[in-house]
């Protein structure tokens, strides 16, 4: 399950919209124009089960998303879904990892406080004894040039 | 018949004798005859691994993936509190203060330490830098990387953080750190492989018990480690998956 965002958590002026998520879920989100820069030298790491439910996050993930570990574990990974991200990107992500391949892309993530942060994300399937038991994603600091390209490209994919 | 033990060539040279002391201790404790072979560089060591000569290895995280997935090795232990981190440094007189300000064409000094180079390249990405748009200056040791920077022969250097921290104060004063990685889950591990796998638990117990006796503590000291900590299969698999996301 995934809850709507809470206006009391939002910092700054915000807009609101409703996201249609996988499996018919809907979520009301609030988002601002405030960017949090990617922390130098760090990696943001999370692991999900085969359906995309978060099973592990590192401290950098917690710090950047603004949620507590307890709020993240057990939540669908779309808890970070930003309205500016085209669904096509995530369809490509899932199609790729379900083929057993590595996916890489630039993602704008939504923070609990309504702000956002850009990452360069890589997702790999976790294969144990030949079976996919989940997925791991590691994010690193993206180049500004690549982010600018995505800012121009993503709105055309809706 | 004796088994073959080797150490990733990126270990700090100060601990060369430490590994021989460790090997002697390990043989006494386990009753297994083990020969320590130090290879001259990564290529020679990889060649020995590919010929299935190696049974025990203190492996860097980069090789660990291949050892587990292709050679049937399993993890034993890792040194407590040690993780592999990288540093991007320039000469102190360089006006650049952020890796993202570096521009294509720069001269990059690095060693053939594969995971350190990988972490370093990741930290250079925010400036749109990659192997294709930099001039490579391969070095044999981190001191050489530092010297290239001091002499102005290289613009940027990639260091193992531990090696950078160990440079003399005089050298460090003339250098400037742009980024220090804080990844904390990438580490070297002692791994056991073909021929010795049935002794995994025995070896693990010996290693974990080292802090419990005075001799063992002395051996650890000569390696520069506080203690060994068990690495289970899933922790190693997690690190391998993580490495996999970074090698692209
Ligand atoms: C390991 C892993 C990590 C993911 N990380 C993110 C992420 O950081 N941000 C995000 O919006 N979606 C991420 N996703 C994709 C989400 O599961 C989801 O597909 C996406 O947010 C779109 O939501 P929807 O599938 O419900 O439409 C990740 C998926 C996996 C498997």
UniProtKB/TrEMBL annotation, chain A:
Matching CDD domains: PAS
A Pfam family matched in the record: PAS_3
Tree of life domain: Bacteria
InterPro entries listed in its UniProt record: PAS, PAS-like_dom_sf, PAS_fold_3
Residue span, PAS domain: 49-100
Transmembrane regions listed in the UniProt entry: none
Protein's name according to its UniProt entry: PAS domain S-box
Organism of this sequence: Methylomicrobium album BG8
Phylogenetic placement of the source organism: Bacteria, Pseudomonadati, Pseudomonadota, Gammaproteobacteria, Methylococcales
UniProtKB/TrEMBL annotation, chain B:
Pfam families for the chain: Phosphonate-bd
SUPFAM superfamilies: Periplasmic binding protein-like II (SSF53850)
Protein name (Swiss-Prot/TrEMBL): ABC-type phosphate/phosphonate transport system, periplasmic component
């Amino acid at each position: 399950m995934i809850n709507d965002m809470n206006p009391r958590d939002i910092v700054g002026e915000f807009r609101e919209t409703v996201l249609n998520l996988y499996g018919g879920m809907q979520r009301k989100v609030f988002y601002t124009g405030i960017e949090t820069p990617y922390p130098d030298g760090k990696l943001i790491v999370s692991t999900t089960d085969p359906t995309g439910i978060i099973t592990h996050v590192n401290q950098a993930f917690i710090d950047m998303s603004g949620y507590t570990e307890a709020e993240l574990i057990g939540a669908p990974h779309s808890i970070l879904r930003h309205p500016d991200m085209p669904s096509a990107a995530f369809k490509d992500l899932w199609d790729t990892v379900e083929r057993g391949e590595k996916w890489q892309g630039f993602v704008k993530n939504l923070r609990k406080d309504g702000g956002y942060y850009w990452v360069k994300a890589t997702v790999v399937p976790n294969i144990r004894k030949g079976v996919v038991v989940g997925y791991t994603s590691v994010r690193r600091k993206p180049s500004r040039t690549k982010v600018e390209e995505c800012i121009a490209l993503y709105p055309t994919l809706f | 018949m004796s088994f073959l033990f080797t150490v990733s060539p990126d270990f700090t040279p100060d601990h060369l004798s430490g590994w021989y002391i460790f090997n002697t201790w390990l043989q006494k404790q386990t009753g297994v005859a083990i020969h320590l072979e130090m290879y001259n560089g990564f290529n020679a060591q990889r060649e020995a691994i590919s010929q299935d000569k190696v049974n025990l290895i203190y492996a860097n995280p980069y090789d660990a993936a291949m050892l587990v997935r292709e050679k049937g090795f399993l993890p034993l232990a890792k040194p407590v509190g040690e993780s592999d981190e990288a540093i991007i440094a320039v000469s102190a007189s360089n006006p650049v203060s952020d890796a993202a300000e570096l521009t294509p064409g720069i001269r990059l000094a690095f060693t053939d330490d594969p995971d350190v180079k990988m972490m370093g390249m990741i930290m250079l990405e925010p400036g749109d830098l990659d192997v294709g748009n930099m001039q490579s200056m391969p070095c044999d040791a981190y001191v050489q990387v530092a010297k290239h920077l001091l002499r102005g022969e290289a613009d940027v250097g990639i260091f193992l953080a531990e090696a950078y921290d160990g440079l003399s104060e005089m050298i460090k004063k003339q250098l400037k750190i742009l980024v220090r990685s804080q990844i904390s889950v990438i580490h070297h591990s002692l791994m056991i492989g073909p021929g010795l796998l049935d002794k995994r638990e025995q070896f693990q117990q010996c290693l974990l018990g080292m802090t419990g006796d005075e001799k063992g503590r002395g051996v650890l000291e000569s390696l520069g480690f506080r203690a060994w900590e068990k690495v289970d299969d899933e922790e190693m698999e997690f690190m391998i998956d993580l490495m996999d996301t970074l090698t692209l």
